[in-house]
Design goal:
By secondary structure, the protein is mainly alpha-helical. Helices cover 81% and strands 0% of the residues. It has two helices and no strands.
Length: 113
C-alpha cells in the first residue's frame, strides 16, 4: 500500500445529500404519524369507566410518545452525522487547498525569474 492519501470529497458530499434526504423524510415522519394518531385517539374507550380502556389507553399514549421520541432521535442522529462529515471533508480539503495554493505560488514565482 502506498503512502499517498486521497479522498473523493465530491463523492462524500454527494453521499451527504442522500443522508439529507433521509433527514427530510424523518422530519416529515413525526408530524405525519402525529396527525394520523390523532384520528384514533380514544378508540379504546372512556378510561374513566371502562376497564379495558383504562388498561389500554396509557399504553397507547406511551407508545405514541416513544415513537415520536425515536423518530426525533433518528432525525437528530442523521443531522449530527451530516455535520460531522461536513466538518471532516473541510479538514480534508484544507490541506489540499493549501497545497494547490503553494503550487500556484511556486509557479508564479518561477515565472518571474
Amino acid at each position: 500500500m502506498g503512502s499517498e492519501y486521497s479522498a473523493d470529497i465530491d463523492g462524500i458530499l454527494q453521499g451527504c445529500q442522500e443522508l439529507r434526504d433521509a433527514v427530510a423524510y424523518s422530519d416529515r415522519l413525526g408530524p405525519e404519524f402525529d396527525e394520523r394518531y390523532r384520528d384514533y385517539i380514544g378508540w379504546w374507550g372512556n378510561e374513566a369507566d371502562d376497564d379495558f380502556a383504562g388498561q389500554v389507553g396509557p399504553g397507547c399514549r406511551q407508545e405514541y410518545e416513544q415513537v415520536l421520541s425515536t423518530v426525533n432521535s433518528i432525525s437528530k442522529g442523521f443531522a449530527s452525522l451530516i455535520e460531522a462529515i461536513r466538518e471532516e471533508t473541510s479538514q480534508i480539503r484544507k490541506p489540499q487547498d493549501l497545497a494547490l495554493s503553494d503550487i500556484h505560488d511556486q509557479q508564479s514565482q518561477a515565472g518571474r525569474r
